[in-house]
Amino acid sequence: MSIDILKEIIKPSELTDRGFISTQGIGVSLQPLPIHLIYCILPTQDNFQTIIDNVSPYISKFLTIHIFTFGLIPDSAIELLKSNNQVVSKLLTLLELPLTFTIQTGDLLTLGPNFGISDIYLNQNEVKMNEISSRLRDLFLVMNDRPAIRYYKQSSMATGIANSLEKLLVSAVSARPGLGGSGSDKRRSLCLILDRSFDQLSPFIHDLTLEAMAHDLLEVKGHVCTFKEDGQTFNVKFDDNDQLWQGLRLKHIADVSNEIATKTRDFSEKNHIQMPEGEVTVAGLRRQIAKLPTLLPEFQKLQSFLALASKLMDIYKTNKLKQITQAEQEFATNLSSDGNPIADNFALYYNVFEEAVCNEDKLRLVLLFALKNNTGISYALTDKLLTSSKIESSKQFIEALKLINFNMVEDPSCARPAIQRAEEDSNISTGYAHSRFVPYMWHICKGMTSQTLEEDAYPFVGERVYISATDTTAKKAFEFGKYSARPDANAKKNSPRLYIFVLGGTLSNA
């Protein structure tokens, strides 16, 4: 995990430009050269022991040692260091970095580990809000950013965290006047604080893009998806630096196989390989791998992603997800694929409900129907459907959802926030009727980057970032991070960033 964190702070190419010889794991044997050693590690006793074991044989050759830890160093590790006088004599830096967050992907972070949804919603108090605010402040310190803060007004927790965070950032700027960098661009960064109730529909919908389906239907651990297909076990890595994965991850599952087939034929033609006529299959790629071992990595990658798409389509058919996703889309959008309004009558969907293979899919249908309008469904209908779904904990689950303002049952004394629906957008449309629903997060991101997000619903706290519609220079500068169109690396580094923090977590499809 340390190397992932390091890559987020500085690119390997930038390290090389600054004179670093190499970046490698702490377990790699060192050459006895007159060099400076810089370690970025998780503060475990095993990691400190590994450093001592590696540097001790050639300690006289090394110039200096600098150790940065992503977290607090335990006393046992400090004592271990102090017991080795040779290492201490070369140790110039021992610094704890306040990384109270975990990097999931290049664009996604969490406040974990050991900081889950129950920690947030079961302890809604000032202490918990201050702890969350402190972790967000730590993130901005590491990123050297001082964003303006906006929040979801309907959420008392988002409001409390936003106000607490603003106070912490004001204090941080007083202690570090250079926080956020210089120039108008970087100082236009924004942070929006939401809670899960801003979009109640997305968590229960089957998204049919490749990455979302993999997380929904298969086991993904440590960015690796493991499954069996056609008698073979596959371990497919979801690597942000892999161009093939980046090109496939957000494509509709119906397009993925065709895309891989096209890439396979293009690759074969480029390398003067005769591919058999007809459909490109996992078995066919396996035969090509056996015949052309020199091209093994490329063919294996294509085979793995084709197998992943095939596995997901098999589950889609086995679990009768075609009928289920059609019903989900109608409940979520309140419209049929022809654009006609949907009646508030669950009996019209009862056959789909009864024929669902997975009980969890039955529960999804109940929840989405309950969210179809702003009042929920009656207790009698809820009880009947949940009993029929045969999920033992379904009723407790419904009660737990109240903690995050997901009130499914009609209750005049416990009103829930109005259901927010994003308009269809051709920019992200897959063109498939079973994928019409647009997560509300898209509306928010679009509004934040174009400065059209409703300020009465998502107000600022503290300094307000605003750009005049006639200020073309400022409008050009208002480009966020990786989504900037500027090719220059330094311009991207200094461009403003958009941070969106969701209490309760975000989703693969949102």
Automatic annotation (TrEMBL):
Q: Which family does it belong to?
A: Belongs to the STXBP/unc-18/SEC1 family.
This chain's protein is named: Syntaxin-binding protein 1
The species is Thelohanellus kitauei (Myxosporean)
Q: Which GO terms describe its biological process?
A: vesicle-mediated transport
Q: Which Pfam families match?
A: Sec1
Where are the bilayer-spanning segments? none
